[in-house]
Amino acid sequence: MDEQYLWEDKPELNITPLVDIMLVLLAILMVTTPTIVYQEDITLPKGSKSVKKVQDNMLEVRIDKHKKIYIKNTTYDYKIFPDSFNLLAKQYSKKDTSVFIRADKDLSYESVIYILKSIKEAGFTKVSLVTNG
Q1: What is the pTM of this model?
Q2: Residue 118 DSSP one-character state
Q3: Among residues 53, 72, 84, 103, which one has the fewest Cβ atoms lying within 10 Å of its Cβ?
Q4: Torsions phi, psi of 116, nearest 5?
C-alpha cells in the first residue's frame, strides 16, 4: 500500500511567484533601457578641397519689408507678382530649378505664404524658405 500512496500524490507546480518575478524584471528592463546611451566614434573621410559646384539652375526670390519682390535685377510688385512670375517661369525648367525665398523677418506669415503659393502654382517643385543660421 505504501507504493500506491506514492503514485497517487501528484505534486503541483505553483508558477505564480515565478511570473511575479519575471514581471518585475521586465518592468526594470523597460525603465532602464531608454536611459542607456550608445555612442559610436565615427571618423568621416575627408572630402576633396575643390570648389563647390555652383548651381546654375537656381532662382532666388527676395522680399523686403515693404513687399517689394526682387528676382535677379528685376523688381516686381506684390499684388501682381503671380502673373509676372508665371511669365518669368516659362524661361526655366520647373522640375530642375530650385527656388529659394528670402523674406524680411518683419513680413507677415500670410505675405510669405502668398509668394510661396504663387511659386508653387507656377509649377516649381523645389521651393525652400531661407533663414539665417
Answers
A1: 0.55
A2: H
A3: 53
A4: -60, -45
> Which pLDDT tens digit goes with each residue over 50-82?
555 555 678 888 888 888 888 888 888 888 888
Backbone dihedral region of 72: left (phi > 0), alpha (psi from -120 to 50 degrees) or beta? left
Measure the CA–CA gap between 26 and 80, rounded to whole angstroms: 65
Q: What amino acid is encoded at 76 in this protein?
A: Y
| Cα 52 versus chain centre, distance | 24
For residue 100, give the nearest of 71, 66, 80 by alpha carbon. 71
Question: Residue 107: is it exposed, middle or buried by C-beta count within 10 angstroms (0-12/13-18/19+)?
Answer: middle
Q: Hey, is 77 helix, strand or coil?
A: coil
- Check: CB of residue 125 under 8 Å from CB of residue 94: yes
Q: What is the DSSP string of 37-74?
A: -------PPPPP-SPPPPPSSEEEEEE-TT--EEETTE
Pairwise CA distance, residues 82 & 61, whole Å: 13
Nearest to 119 by CA among 56, 132, 108, 92: 92
